[in-house]
User: Fold this.
Amino acid sequence: MKKITIEITEEQYVKMTNHLQKGLALNVDNETFSGYGLNLKCVDGGLASWLEVESNGTLNLGDVNWKIE
Assistant:
């Protein structure tokens, strides 16, 4: 089995967790349930890769490094 590893900085991690916590708070306030999505975006040829987090809106975390092992 292969695994995908996405490396993010500490700053990106903090932004992501804050965004997810705000989404959870909105869900609790509105008595709703929803999940979140992580979208790895890539330009052909390895020119650029970035990560987006979707949860009550989209947060672009910026450039990331990733690999398949």
Notes: The chain has a mean pLDDT of 90. The longest helix spans residues 10-29. Helices lie at 10-29. The chain is about 30% helix and 40% strand.
